[in-house]
Amino acid sequence: MSQSDTFAAELLEVSATGYAALATERLLASQPDIAARFSPDAVGAWKAALGQRVVELATALRLGEPTLFAARLGWARRAFEARGVPESDLRASIEALAAVLAEELPEPARGGPAALLRSALAELELPLGDSDSFIDPQTRTGRLSLAYLATVLEGDSRRATDQVLAEVDAGLAVESAYLDVLVPAQREVGRLWHAGELGIVEEHIVTYTTERLMALLAHRAERTPPNGRTVICAAVAGNVHDIAVRVLADFFDISGWRAVHLGASVPAAEIASAVQYFDGDLLVLSAALSVQLPKVADAISAVRRIEGRELRIMVGGLAFSDTPEIWRKLGADGYAADATAAVRLAAELFTT
User: Fold this and answer.
1) Residue 314 in 3-state DSSP?
2) Segment 89-98, tens digit of pLDDT
């Protein structure tokens, strides 16, 4: 990452609201049909959307990973498509943002953002791939996952819970119930919400039911004898989704670790304090969005500053799916794509 990109990222972060406001003003002035489509609060909607684009742009520049911005723009395209909004609106918004930054950023800071935005506009010319379901109905667990999700969305959380527990009692491994039933169901809810097919109420109902069911499953699991080590699991600041962290904590607990689950959106300083207080041997950090990756770096830096502590740090979450090797830049000791891989990697980290 060049000094000019670092400079640009800092300016974008501190002035994201201002740049978004200017881009919104330019967009709606030049595209009155867009203002009509997003009435009655077109200004508010586009300020929020463009503010997010600016932060995503800053994150990609700061980390030297241009694919992060392209990936987030792909999500935006799917949201527009799902909601029946012309993709030309998205293109017009990126063009407005590019024009504002070309005018407002100091000359030394313009190159990086301009290059990423040009690449983004070129990306919009490519076909958008299909977005498939996260649930495979051809498998036993896939069918159970679909049945679980459908039952919860019908408002019958108790029956949905009983369906899964009955399969566990009949021989389905607890770990499979987590990874092959509940996790795909949660990811599918996220996809459906993004596609505009579910609202926030339905998402909350499914999440509540899944959290309650996970607690029941954890008590049914056969636990490995304690290994004497403590793992701290946390979602970094800004990541308000902690289902993945709960799964991690439960898997470590089942595998003999003392697992301390800190929950969602935990500030870096609090994570460092928890590592000290609970005498952690391993820290696992989760990030859901690319814009949360700097928070992962902050947490790692805060923990690394603790004197006299040798601690392994692992990262995971959807934020790493597009650039899994970025964990090296953030200062972690490893990356795991799921809970099973995390437990396996932890064993490796403590045998080397």
Assistant:
1) strand
2) 999 999 999 9
